[in-house]
Each structure stands twice: as structure tokens, then as C-alpha cells.
Specification:
79 residues; mainly alpha; 2 strands
Length: 79
């Protein structure tokens, strides 16, 4: 299972790769306001988010659970 840090890297890398493919992303030399995902790119990025969102949610749940356990253990040690 990937942790939050790994997932951030994967999401960033995935979006970076998708924006490098012309059929998915139009990059304008005029400026960022003219750059955009193509229709096909919008479908692909949405599919990507649909795949990644549950993984991100699971990683956050694991992180929250671990923090709770750490707090309990620290509280028990301090007594």
C-alpha cells in the first residue's frame, strides 16, 4: 500500500505525463490561460482521478488511524 507521500508523487507524475501528450493537453506558447485539456484529455484525467481517489482516501484513513494509535501509545507511556 502506498502512503500519502508516494501517492502525491504518483499523481503529480501522472498529470505531468498526461500534459506532455498533445492529444490530451494543448499547451499554448501564448500563456497558461490558453493551455487546456482536450476533450479526450478531460475524459482521461477524470478516469485517472477516479482510479486515484480511492487510493488517496485509503492512504489518508491509514495515516489517521496510525496517528490515533501513536497518540494512545504516547499517552500510555506518559502515565
Amino acid at each position: 500500500m502506498m502512503d500519502s507521500e508516494a501517492l502525491r508523487a504518483v499523481v503529480y507524475a501522472g498529470i505531468t505525463e498526461l500534459t506532455a501528450i498533445k492529444k490530451y493537453y494543448y499547451h499554448s506558447t501564448v500563456g497558461p490561460s490558453y493551455s487546456h485539456f482536450t476533450e479526450e484529455g478531460e475524459r482521461v484525467i477524470l478516469d485517472y482521478i477516479k482510479v486515484m481517489a480511492p487510493l488517496i482516501h485509503e492512504a489518508e484513513e491509514r495515516s489517521l488511524d496510525q496517528r490515533a494509535k501513536d497518540i494512545v501509545m504516547q499517552t500510555l507511556k506518559d502515565k
